[in-house]
Specification:
The structure is a single chain. The protein is α/β, with parallel strands linked by helices and 339 residues long. It folds into two domains: 2-147 and 324-337, Rossmann fold, CATH 3.40.50.2000; 163-323, Rossmann fold, CATH 3.40.50.2000. The chain is built from 13 helices and 13 strands. It has a seven-stranded parallel beta sheet, with helices on both faces. A six-stranded parallel beta sheet has the order 10-9-8-11-12-13, sandwiched between helices. Strand 8, helix 6 (176-188) and strand 9 form a beta-alpha-beta unit. Helix 1 (14-28) packs across helix 13 (325-337) and helix 12 (305-323) packs across helix 13. The longest helix has 19 residues, at 305-323. The N and C termini lie close together (11 Å). Residues 13-135 form the Glycosyltransferase subfamily 4-like N-terminal domain. This is Glycosyl transferase. InterPro entries: Glyco_trans_1, Glyco_trans_4-like_N.
Length: 339
């Protein structure tokens, strides 16, 4: 198949990353793929063939006309669209691509333009259900995120103070403030832990101030952005996801593949990953946005390392089989061929 891969915004973090991975997956599956996007975005830097398109706003007619030129020249069978702006552009009357548009829905913030798409792929059942409720006539397929996961062996139980870690953009949605409250509760209860938080973002100063206010400066390390998530994750004894909202949670699968036990809030994406239908739990889940319950879940994982590490080994295998790049490419190709 000939497929255009469209992502028009710049600096959208995970959305751009997944657009790149879709391009790579399409090529790996034997499709002819071309990406269109911001001239200074990740698609421009990491994919080929690529052509730049500048979109100043949703429904930008000039961007739609640019897409039309590529539709005419490339003659795609389908146009994969990441993000609301890409979807709005592809289904614009001037683009000539509405009947070929497949929306990749990464979160709950979809807009009404999606109703004009040929089909939609959703990253989790929760996103699928929300989209189906809003647009019951739209053809929808489950398409979890995927990544070139780096497998690492599960480490033995720590002999000293366990290292708890988190990874993500320092944004209020990621709930690192709740994690710090949970750590403070652990310390008050006599639990010795060390904490590493990798990432950067707008909440950095506030989180550092909170760490000081809670008296945790000697226990919490802010690591900044890390070049190799797998190297960082494999240095942890326990990975904690404390997000307030997470439509999927790719970092959970990265931690699983790295052999790190996972504790997460019981929210949409992580729940689907860690409690697969018909299988034993692959990690610990606790009440969302509840620092006390998170502290209890961390304690439970540390208090029973044999069970925690057994789950981590099962989780490692499940992540590679379900969310690895090859698995994602095969699943994507199967869906697209059905369209």
């Amino acid at each position: 198949m000939r497929i255009l891969n469209l992502m028009l915004a710049k600096g959208r973090g995970g959305l751009e990353t997944m657009a790149v991975r879709y391009h790579q997956a399409l090529l790996a599956a034997g499709h002819e793929a071309m990406s269109l996007g911001h001239p200074q975005g990740e698609l421009a830097r990491l994919t080929a063939p690529f052509a730049p398109i500048v979109s100043h706003f949703s429904h930008d007619p000039l961007a739609a006309l640019a897409v039309r030129r590529h539709v005419s020249q490339f003659q795609p069978d389908l146009i994969l669209c990441h993000g609301n702006r890409a979807i709005a552009t592809a289904v614009h009357p001037l683009s000539g691509g509405a009947g070929k548009t497949v929306a990749i829905v990464h979160n709950f913030r979809f807009k009404r333009d999606i109703a004009r798409a040929r089909a939609a792929l959703t990253v989790s059942r929760a996103v699928r259900d929300a989209l189906h409720k809003a647009h019951p006539l739209l053809k929808i397929f489950d398409m979890p995120n995927f990544a070139p996961l780096e497998a690492r062996p599960v480490k033995p139980a720590p002999k000293g103070v366990p290292v708890i870690g988190a990874l993500g953009r320092l944004h209020v949605n990621k709930g690192f403030d709740i994690l710090l409250e949970a750590v403070a509760e652990l310390v008050r209860g006599g639990r010795e832990v060390r904490v590493r938080i990798a990432g950067d973002g707008p909440e950095k100063v506030a989180l550092e101030a909170q760490t000081t206010a809670l008296g945790l400066n000697d226990r919490v390390e802010f690591c900044g952005w890390v070049d190799s998530p797998a190297d960082y994750l494999s240095g942890l004894d326990l990975f904690v996801l404390s997000s307030r909202v997470e439509p999927f949670g790719l970092v959970v699968t990265e931690a699983m593949a790295a052999g790190v036990p996972v504790v997460s809030f019981d929210i949409d994406g992580p729940r689907e990953i860690l409690q697969p239908t018909g299988s034993a739990p692959l990690g610990g889940l606790c009440a969302a946005q509840d620092a006390g319950d998170l502290a209890q879940a961390i304690n439970a994982a540390i208090d029973d390392w044999p069970a925690t590490l057994a789950r981590a080994e099962a989780a490692r295998m499940a992540a590679l089989e379900t969310y690895g790049q090859d698995a994602g490419a095969a699943r994507l190709s199967q869906i697209l061929s059905s369209l």
